[in-house]
Design goal:
By secondary structure, this protein is α/β, with parallel strands linked by helices. It has two domains: about 230 residues, 3-Layer(aba) Sandwich (Aspartate Aminotransferase, domain 2), CATH 3.40.640.10; about 90 residues, Aspartate Aminotransferase, domain 1 (Alpha-Beta Complex). The chain is built from 14 helices and twelve strands. The chain has a seven-stranded mixed β-sheet with strand order 2-8-7-6-5-3-4, sandwiched between helices. Helix 1 runs antiparallel to helix 11 and helix 6 runs parallel beside helix 7. The two termini are about 25 Å apart. The model has no long low-confidence stretch (mean pLDDT about 95). GO terms for molecular function: L-allo-threonine aldolase activity.
């Protein structure tokens, strides 16, 4: 997208920084399908250690990382529980059913405000001619929940619920880095609560591609077979892994800047009654149910003035701050959006 646009559609639109490009260009590489790419191996070991797990696996996308993890936890014909707006059942094109033979059942969409006891009441044990529950999945931060952060206390209760029911707990941690920065919870503390995690390097951290599955050594060994089966085996992938390693070293702490800029945008649109929820991280959700403009009309009008926003539904839009957005861009976007919303 041309530099003339202020792009608030997603934090995936960023471009590699000069330092990241240099790291990619100089990366030591090998054939990762043979396990011989030293940069990939280093990235996997680093991410596993960050979350206190034994191993990790580099995958081309967050969707693939999630689906690999779910197949590790839920065998065909068994059940996954998650919320109705979860990425794994909303934006992954039915992959759990299509590739894993997994049946999914959801609790009502509440974003980060999960009631662990309500989840506990949904778990189905073996027998009774019902599909047994094998895993629970949560999303940290929650995309369609406006970048909400699930409190650590809630996650600990979900871990207790999962243990008592003898089911697994998965974290779609595409933006877990944002939760870490927002609440100050160490990544290793998040990691110890989950059997598997998927973590993304291209949402917020600025890498051009890539996510990782995190888990035990035994799970990650099986994950390599699933990745290969799904077409995710890569060769000299160290060029991409180097971008991820650079992002982890340079772009995590700076997420606080994105959070501050998102708060500025939220403050600008709040007087018009369209802010869907309190803004905690880098996502600003807009609920246009009671506004004269619908989401497509607002997006079209904003585009005409050089601001790109995401349309999530007929009356739902979203603004996302990121590495390539500076204070001047926020000021311009706030000026345009407030004028359009006030009209």
């Amino acid at each position: 997208m041309a530099d003339a646009f202020v792009d608030l559609r997603s934090d995936t639109v960023t471009r590699p920084t000069p330092g990241m490009r240099e790291a990619m260009a100089s990366a030591e590489v090998g054939d990762d399908v043979y396990g011989e790419d030293p940069t990939v191996n280093a990235l996997e070991a680093e991410v596993a250690a960050l979350f206190g797990h034994e191993a990790a696996l580099f995958a081309p996308s967050g969707s693939m990382a999630n689906q690999i993890a779910l197949q590790l936890l839920v065998s065909p014909g068994n059940e996954l529980l998650c919320d109705a707006d979860a990425h794994v059942v909303t934006y992954e094109i039915g992959a759990a059913a299509a590739y894993g033979g997994i049946s999914s059942r959801t609790w009502p969409a509440v974003g980060a405000d999960i009631d662990p006891e309500a989840v506990a009441g949904m778990i189905r044990p073996d027998g009774y001619f019902a599909v047994p529950t094998r895993a629970i999945a949560v999303e940290q931060t929650h995309n369609r929940g406006g970048g909400g952060v699930i409190p650590l206390a809630t996650l600990r209760e979900l871990r207790r619920v999962a243990d008592e029911a003898e089911v697994a707990l998965h974290c779609d941690g595409a933006r877990i880095w944002h939760a870490h920065v927002a609440d100050g919870v160490p990544l290793v503390e998040y990691g110890q609560l989950f059997d598997t995690l998927s973590v993304c390097l291209s949402k917020g951290l600025g890498a051009p591609v890539g996510s990782l599955v995190v888990g035990s050594a035994e799970k990650i060994e099986r994950a390599r077979l699933i990745r290969k089966r799904m077409g995710g085996g890569m060769r000299q992938a160290g060029i991409l892994a180097a971008a991820g390693r650079y992002a982890l070293a340079h772009h995590v702490d700076r997420l606080a800047e994105d959070h501050a800029r998102a708060a500025r945008l939220a403050e600008a649109v709040a007087p018009f009654g369209v802010l869907a929820t309190a803004v905690r991280t880098n996502l600003v959700p807009l609920d246009l149910t009671k506004h004269a403009l619908d989401a497509r009309a607002l997006a079209a009008a904003a585009r005409a003035e050089g601001v790109l926003i995401s349309v999530l539904g007929p009356r739902t839009a979203r603004l996302v701050t990121h590495l390539d957005l500076d204070d001047a861009g926020v000021t311009h976007a706030a000026t345009v959006l407030t004028r359009l919303l006030a009209a």
